[in-house]
Every structure is written in C-alpha cells, then in structure tokens.
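for the writeup, i need someone to sanity check this before i put it in the appendix. the sequnce is what the collaborator sent (i think, or maybe the updated version? ugh). structure was predicted straight from it, no edits. if anything looks off just tell me and ill rerun, i have time this weekend
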Amino acid sequence: MLVQLNDFLLSIGKKEYVPIMLGGMGVDVSVPELALAVAGQNGIGHITDAMITATVDKHFHTHYVLDKLDQYRSLLGAHNNKQPIHFDLNALGDAVRLFVGKTMDAKKDAGAIFLNVMEKLTMSAPHDTLQVRLRAAMDAGIDGITLGAGLHLGSLDMIKDHPRFRDVKLGIIVSSARALHVFMRRAMRAERMPDYIVVEGPMAGGHLGFPLNWRDFSLKEILQDILQMVKKEGLAIPVIAAGGVFTGSDAVELMQQGAAGVQVATRFAVTKESGLPYNVKQEFFRASEEDVVVNMISPTGYPMRMLRNSPAIGSGPMPQCEAFGYILDGAGKCSYLNAYIREAATGERPVHVDEVTCLCTQMNSYKIWTCGQNVFRLKDTTNKLPDGSYQLPTAAQVFADYQFSTDGHISLPPLES
C-alpha cells in the first residue's frame, strides 16, 4: 500500500491538523488570503509581521508609513545620523492588531493561523518593538506565534505576564540542535516549553541559518539530531521539517523518519492567492537551477537564497529609513546605509551598491526574489500556456498534491480553458 501524507496527522496541543504548514514568506507573500486557504484545508497557514506597518497600509489603506515619514521629514538627506528614527510603539501595536485581527475574523475553518515573527528586525529599538509585536498579536487572537529569523532569547520573558501566554501556541525555527539547546534552557527558566519546533534545512528560501558552505549540511541529519535531543530531554514536542520539501513523497519520507509535519513555501509562492506580483511568479516558473544563488547582500549578515536576476542585486536606492527603518540597530546603524553613503560620496550616478542591499526598500517592492533551492522545478508542477506563460495553481491544488501524491508524482492543475 502506497503511503500518502494524508495518512498522518500533526498534533499541536489538543488539535490535529493535516501535517502541512505554510512557511511565513515576507514581505507580504504569505498574505492572509493564502494563509486562510491553507487553514481551510485543515493545515496551518502563516502570515508574517515583516514590515508590518507598510503591509497594513497596503491592505487596509492606513497611513502608518506616511505618518512616520512626516514625523522625520526634516531629517531627509541626513544619512549619517539615523538614531532618532524610532517607530511609534502605539502605532506599531495598532498595525499588528489590525492585521492579525482582520485575518482571524476571516478564519472560518478548522485549521490554524500562525504569525511568523521576524525577531531580528531591530527597528531601532530591538527589545521594545519585538515586545509590542508579540503582545499585539496575542491581543488580536492569533492561534500561534513562530519565532524565526534568529532567536531572541528574551522573547518568552516579554510575554510571560500576558493572559494568553499559556494559551497561544508558541514555536521556534532552528537550524541546529545547538541553537535549540540554547533556547530550551531559557524556556525552562520561563516554565514554558515550545509547542512545536520547525527544523529548517539548508535548501530553504530567504535567510539561511547556515554559512555559505550550506551544501555540507543535511536536513535529514539535523532532523535526527533534534529528534534525539527532544527524546533525551523527555519532551513530547512535535518537530516539523522544512526546506526543500517539494513533493508529497518528500514529506512522507521525512514523516517516516520521525517528523511530525512539514513546512513548505516555494510551491505556494506561485499560487493565485500568493502576494507575489504576477510577473515575479512567472520569473519563478522560468528559473533554471543555475539561476538560484546564495549570497551575502542582506544587511542582516546572514546568507540569503534568491534568483540571480533579482532587480535588487547591485542597485543603490536611497535609504528610506525615515519611512521604513526596519534594519536599523539600536544605535541607528545599518550596513546598507554605510555602503550607500560611501558610494554616493563618489559622485557617480546612478548609485550602485554591489555588496549589500537595502532590504527594507527592495523587499517592500518585491525586488528581492527569495526562493527555495528547488524553485527551478516549479515549471514541472503546472501547465505552460500557449502564450508561453505558466498557469497559476490554487493553494488548494498545491495542498492536495502534497496531501495525496505518491512516488514523487506531481499532479498538474486542470488546464485552463
């Protein structure tokens, strides 16, 4: 008898789900419509709080970014001193509550909606802004929070007095047993173990928890290390495998090796419900294996996987810290800001910055095309249309293919008439 992913269930707390978790793709790729579609199949859909005020402005016609820009308009051009550029914490909390609240109001199905919290978005005030985002999401009724983009060891302490601290599901993303060990020691002191653990391997999209020799690491090996650690500690915490899970058969293999579920993203990035613009989805379909690169252009200092023809690579937009300012550290510094000042001082126009990119500006305008290592296989998951473009599948079609496919088979969506 052929085994399907649908033969398994993912248990988190007292609820059971189809063991498919949508990865939190930012900025504004895992939009509420996509997350809700996954939840509608009794899976777990992630939305993300990356650049949340800009995202909320786009969805709900608010003006958080313009208000922030107006507040600091007198500082435009003073790129050597960004220290005063802080977020209004009340506005930030309101934006999170609006975004999460509207999403949860629209949820009608048995699945769950989790928020992927980008912990290393320093936002000029690392502690205060993270605390506001976490607490506001809990206020708004989010089902779960996944702590990702680096682990802030103080996260649990920031919310331990919140009335939903024991109620909301809390998970973490790690890429090694060592990182998990460090977090678990802190969690034990807070007397709040994570409800689930996402193990992200080296083939994932976006920022990676691996050095540039990522090919020397294996999701399966890391998964076993973490499963053994969880067992040794006597903990009953589901472990979810992520990164390079392209077919239902890939998922089944990981489940048979002890994973409780899988987190997937790349195939959902090109669905009709995804927040990626249509032209970028077509770039994903057209990509070859040689088009996928891991580089160091992120100002976070972490390697990042993307398509080599991403418009952001080598461009030099003026930093918009007054409007966005998400990567500014507590001292108002950013490696892109420093590089831009250096290149602008040469007098050459337009400004080009090769070694680093303005993550805020470029992600907000969909000019960094982050993707999983298997993005070049997307063309085999759909139909090529007479005009040379590729048909966009629905989230439900991709979900069902993961759920029911066997032997590495991928079911193409019905051809559009």
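The chain has a mean pLDDT of 93. The longest strand covers residues 112-118.
thx in advance!!
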